[in-house]
Amino acid sequence: MSTTDSVNIDISQKDVPEKQKKEKRSFKRKILRVLLWIFIILIALILLFTGYTLICNSVDKKKIKNYSEKYSKKVEINGHQMSYSIVGEKNNQTIAILPGMGCPSPIIEFKPLAEALSDKFKVITIEPFGYGFSDDVVDTNRDFSTMISEIREGVKKIGINNYYIMGHSMGGAFSLKWSNQYSDEVLGVIALDSSVSGTEKDISKEELVGSYIPFKKMNSIGLGRLIIKFGQAPYSMDTTYPYTDEEIDVEELLLINHSFTKGQWDDIETFLDRLASLEGVKFPDRIPTLTFLSKDNVKQNTKWEGLHHEILGNNTRNEILVLDGSHYIHYDQKNSIVNKIKEWIQ
């Protein structure tokens, strides 16, 4: 081997580590470029989604205003607008419907039931502050009694002095408190699988509130809109009723834009405390109560039916009926409920 060959071999061997270093640096640069492009794309997507959400919110605001004028009436309570709908205005007997906790659009959700009763009764569907088309009251703290007095004032301003209350879920708990607060006005109560004192011991406040937080967070950044528009909508409606596309749009718009208002979030956070405050409270003896319970809940909670018996006053017209179906018993058993109410209210 010549001296020149020996030198070339040495140089070639020295070039190997240098070549590997260059390849390693080149690979790192490629990785950084890929990461940079991923970052740029993510920022672009976030900006596009933010812009899309802002545009949608602006469009939604106008649509909700138009829908509010079309689907609801308003009464002013303490400087704020409370929304309601009324059907069967020609009738004398009045039923006032109180929705459950977190109901996006009481007017739309209870429309099938209200219409089915409207041939015999004047039916008012009330949207408490923070629900549906009603204002969200953020400047005052409102306790249980105050909220009931607000809704009751709304009923009075509509021109109704005596009435039956029909409450679903949390609305049923409101009915109990209301009946004791204004017993001289209430003609009777219809409870639709209503919430009842004693069940608050089955779940902690942290568990209850925590179950709502994921969707609240998703809704706050606009992801709730995508879930509702392109996925499984997290609301319940009567699937047997021929809702129009516009009515479904109302439900979705209010769920996207008016979920987790201060009024609704206060209800979630104080729900168990309100139930606890009703411990030992019964309906006044003079007020008859017709209670419809979900068989699903009766099976799931062995105390469910018994607790509802405990809150009844001493009235011969009291009845408790357990019907096949879910917590949304007014969807599952609408016809049976309507027929029974017409028979019960004479």
TrEMBL record:
Xref: InterPro entries: AB_hydrolase_1, AB_hydrolase_fold, AB_hydrolase_sf
Keyword set, alphabetical order: Hydrolase, Membrane, Transmembrane, Transmembrane helix
Pfam families assigned: Abhydrolase_1 (PF00561)
Domain of life assignment: Eukaryota
Name of the molecule in the record: Alpha/beta-hydrolase
Lineage: Eukaryota, Fungi, Fungi incertae sedis, Chytridiomycota, Chytridiomycota incertae sedis
TM segment ranges: 31-55
GO function term, MF aspect, one: hydrolase activity
All residue ranges annotated as the AB hydrolase-1 domain in the record: 111-204
Species annotation: Neocallimastix californiae
GO CC term (a single one): membrane
Keyword Transmembrane helix: yes
